[in-house]
Design a protein that fits this description.
mainly alpha; 75% helix
């Protein structure tokens, strides 16, 4: 059971979730994009949200700035990665994705910037919340609002997102990586910015 919980935690690690979300978005919207657009945007998102952060992580480990594993358990060690993620997401939204038709993705990344900002504030006041839950609930709300906005019924997709979020949250609790409170607040930190961004940016 412990091994399964660890595998789930790595499969839906926060560093992978944005790329997984964008990939699922394009599976839903592939008719609206050319193959070239899909490959370019996915490559850009992969570089900015995965390859650059993982490179920075290993650089910080080599410089002994980080002592934790890739899960970064220590609250104080989360401050710098959160700040870096905010900068990278803002760069992705404003400079990389500014000139394409994937408008909904810009809303999603605005919401993620809000989520990471709240996580950063939490880390600064020495509060640790579940980043796994925050990013998965952000993705869940993004797809819920996207489907509602476009009038596309897809209960299977929403049920799958809910199950993944619930299973991952349960895995984090089973591994004692977080308390129930940290998981619950992490979920709210993912939900609220996405809702606010959809309200503000789709008027």
């Amino acid at each position: 059971m412990k091994k399964s919980a660890q595998i789930i935690s790595y499969l839906f690690h926060p560093i992978l979730v944005p790329l997984q979300t964008v990939g699922l978005y394009f599976l839903m919207q592939y008719n609206y994009f050319t193959p070239l657009e899909l490959s370019i945007i996915l490559s850009q998102v992969a570089i900015v949200t995965f390859f650059i952060p993982i490179s920075i992580y290993y650089l910080m480990r080599s410089l002994r700035i980080l002592q934790s594993s890739v899960m970064v358990h220590e609250t104080k060690e989360r401050i710098f990665p959160f700040a870096i993620n905010i900068i990278l997401l803002y760069t992705l939204k404003s400079l990389v994705l500014y000139n394409n038709s994937a408008y909904e993705l810009k809303i999603y990344f605005w919401g993620l910037i809000g989520t990471y900002s709240l996580l950063l504030i939490g880390a600064l006041i020495k509060q640790k919340f579940s980043v796994h839950t925050a990013l998965l609930t952000a993705g869940l709300i993004f797809f819920t609002l996207l489907l509602f906005h476009q009038g596309i019924p897809s209960l299977i997709l929403l049920i799958a997102c809910i199950l993944i979020t619930g299973i991952t949250a349960s895995a984090r609790l089973y591994l004692r990586a977080h308390t129930s409170y940290e998981v619950l607040v992490g979920g709210l930190i993912g939900i609220i910015p996405q809702i606010l961004c959809w309200i503000l940016l789709t008027q």
